[in-house]
# Entry
Amino acid sequence: MRNCIRKKILCCINGSFGERFAEVAEANGVTVVKLAPPLGEPISAEGLHDMLSKNPDVEAVALTHNETSVGLINPLRELVAAVKKHDKLIFVDAVSSMGGTEIQVDDLGIDVCFSSSQKCFGVPPGLGIGSVSEHAMTLSATAVNKGWYFDFKVWEEDQKKGRGTPVTPAIPQIAGLNTALKMIERNGGRKWYFDLYKERNQRIRNGIERHGLSTFPRKGSESPTVNCINAPEGVEGGTIYEKMREKGFELAEGYGPLKKRTFRIGNMGYIEMGNINLMLNALGDVISSL
# Structure
């Protein structure tokens, strides 16, 4: 925000983390325009085009690629194309999608894309991952009141000097990420890793359907890295979460407005197929006991 935005931004909101993007902008003194379809619905290119046409003074669009609070992924390529037709910057929160699905940052023309170590790469938390376009870097050069720790130009200067980072880096996490990337390359590269996510996620989805359960978001927009599952009628999602914990399985509770209505099953990091099968069997026992 401080590097690129002077006055106004459009935030696309599918759930709690899109809402947080807007809160971050407002906390930095930026005026926020919100595009928020009904919960469970993806952002559409048509809706984004209409909103940008009505608000030509926005400088950028902020998008949560994969909204984990509702288990939904947005159509990134179409949305970035819509933004670029209006000659605006695009900021992408790829925290829970990078590594789990294809994101062609340069090909799409994403200006700022950021992620983290602890999601799809399966490394302990503490390491931020990001890319910045030349256009965003140019804007940062003349930005005021942008602080120091997240000043793009400070980081660029250290990169050019070969120093890496301007502050002490999270060395264990960097080593862990390096190991994870080598593992991916050794096993077949990006395609192998993305296919692994698809296979694991499909197994989870098939399993919950066998137990009579359904996912929350609109069909076709389900996240490849986390399933947000509707709890059975008359049962709170938190009940299923707690009963699964009793059986030794750590799922995730519903989040935000869906806290009572849903529970979530993540598909990030190192997970063996056998463990997925065991989890689904336990889930079946829990559902049958309710």
